[in-house]
Write a structure and sequence with these properties.
Elements (H helix, E strand, L loop, with lengths): L12 H9 L3 E6 L5 H15 L6 E6 L2 H16 L6 E3 L4 E3 L5 E6 L13 E4 L9 H11 L4 E6 L6 H11 L3 E6 L1 H4 L4 H10 L2 H9 L12 H9 L3 E2 L9 E6 L5 E10 L2 E11 L3 H10 L4 E7 L13 H7 L5 E4 L5 H12 L2 E4 L4 H9 L2 E4 L4 E6 L5 H12 L36
Parallel strand pairs: 1-7, 1-8, 2-5, 2-6, 6-7, 9-15, 10-13, 12-15, 13-14
Antiparallel strand pairs: 3-4, 4-5, 10-11, 11-12, 16-17
């Protein structure tokens, strides 16, 4: 008979219920101080120790590597320490167990470190703040061979991919979905909740302690503009007009994602009909993608760095792109005043119509694009926070700073009374916008 290993974890009654209820695919929407990270680390340890596969691999993924270390590393060391033969590698945030299993902590800011892995179980913590491409493009394939499990955790951060996967989980019998509000769990004393409520806005409190997806992301640059667009029904079905040329607006990634908005101009209206974003692909990939779209292009607008020439070749990315047939290209300069550029984008948004389906990922990114928080000073910095949402926002800023309102070449047919909901062929798309092993 094998030796019983008891991990020093005494789950609260609610945590114990969750451990029993979890399925292969699970989503937990939790209020602050719920104890989700402790729950997650111990669930991963149990999965690593009980896995029947050779050399089990389980992973905890936070938005940033430094967050993974700050949130979960001490918990992993504490709860895994009693396991005989366990070793820890702090530089790699890794625990190696005597059965050949490995528990690793990662940050989604280092995507390359996640490619090519196989996983038996994974926890994606603060899922609302990681790239929406992380799970479908990188983590889901890593779970295929060994039929691994995934646990999505977090507190709401507006209506984004975390909201979407929670809604999906609620409607699927193969998933477990749980929402845990501070007013219902009793974990945080009422006096503490009252004190927090006094110091927070109603929207902040609702988001952080009552698990509300309805609140706009705190510090978001374009929340009001997008809310107005939804109220005006400018986010819905915006079809491609074959008789009008399409302009594209780019943010070029270097070892990161490249983002492109596709738009048609009709009078003062800017119809945003499509959006694509792809990481770790070169210009030939995007040249092929543009050829396969059913669009006739006007001009392609790229940011200032597209004009920088490489010392090794003497050519810029603009030269390379035009050689692949992406032309003509206009280089869009950016000012040193980021706030002014962002304000210009806000102004432009008042004249934009978005196709909700084709631009869904881009719209979610715009909703999450926000100011950087200075934790030392307890205030926002005068610059954007760079994360997965930055690519779509920077590409749209390319549009705002361009001269695409000026007609190039041949006259363009203009429809001044465009309203896609005036015909019965179109319908509005709602945008939502004892634990032993």
């Amino acid at each position: 008979m094998g030796r019983l290993i008891e991990i020093p974890y005494k789950p609260r009654p609610l945590q114990a219920e969750i451990h029993k209820a979890l399925k292969r695919w699970s989503v937990l929407v939790c209020h602050r101080r719920f104890g989700k990270s402790v729950l997650a680390v111990n669930d991963l340890l149990k999965a690593a120790l009980q896995c029947k596969q050779p050399r089990p691999r389980v992973a905890y993924i936070a938005p940033l590597f430094k967050q993974a270390k700050a949130i979960a590393w001490d918990y992993l060391r504490h709860y895994a320490h009693p396991i005989p033969g366990v070793t820890f590698n702090e530089s790699e945030l890794r625990a190696d167990l005597p059965n050949g299993a490995r528990v690793s902590l990662f940050g989604s800011d280092n995507v390359d470190s996640l490619r090519g892995l196989y996983l038996d179980a994974v926890v994606l913590d603060e899922y609302a703040q990681v790239s929406p491409r992380l799970f479908p493009e990188i983590i889901r394939p890593a779970l295929v061979d060994r039929q691994g499990s995934a646990l999505f955790l977090g507190t709401p951060f507006g209506k984004n991919h975390f909201h979407d996967i929670y809604q999906h989980a609620k409607q699927s019998s193969d998933w477990y979905a749980g929402m845990f509000k501070a007013s219902e769990t009793g974990i945080v004393p009422q006096a503490e909740l009252d004190a927090a409520r006094d110091l927070m806005s109603p929207e902040q409190y609702a988001q952080e302690f009552e698990c509300s997806f309805e609140s706009a992301v705190v510090g978001a640059y374009y929340a009001a503009a997008l809310a107005q667009a939804e109220a005006d029904k400018r986010i819905g079905v915006v079809p491609h007009e074959p008789g009008l040329p399409v302009s594209t607006f780019w943010d070029l990634g270097i070892g990161d994602a490249t983002a492109i908005w596709f738009a048609q101009r009709v009078g003062k209206e800017k119809r945003i009909i499509d959006y694509v974003e792809k990481a770790e692909e070169g210009m030939p990939y995007f040249a092929k993608l543009l050829r396969e779209k059913p669009y006739t292009y006007d001009r392609h607008y790229m940011p200032h760095d597209a004009g920088h020439k490489e010392l090794s070749t003497g050519k810029s990315r603009r030269d390379f792109a035009e050689g692949l047939g992406i032309k003509p290209i206009d280089i869009v300069p950016r000012t040193s005043n980021v706030d002014a550029d962002i304000n210009a984008t806000r102004i432009m948004l008042a004249t934009c119509w978005f196709d909700a389906e084709k631009c869904g990922d881009g719209i979610n990114a715009l909703k999450n694009y926000r100011k950087e928080w200075d934790d030392a000073r307890k205030t926002y910095k005068d610059k954007p926070y760079h994360d997965w949402s930055s690519h779509a926002a920077d590409a749209l800023r390319t549009a705002a700073m361009s001269d695409w309102d000026r007609v190039h070449g041949q006259p363009i047919r203009v429809e001044t009374n465009f309203n896609p909901w005036a015909t019965k062929d179109y319908s509005t798309v709602q945008v939502e916008s004892d634990f032993t092993v």
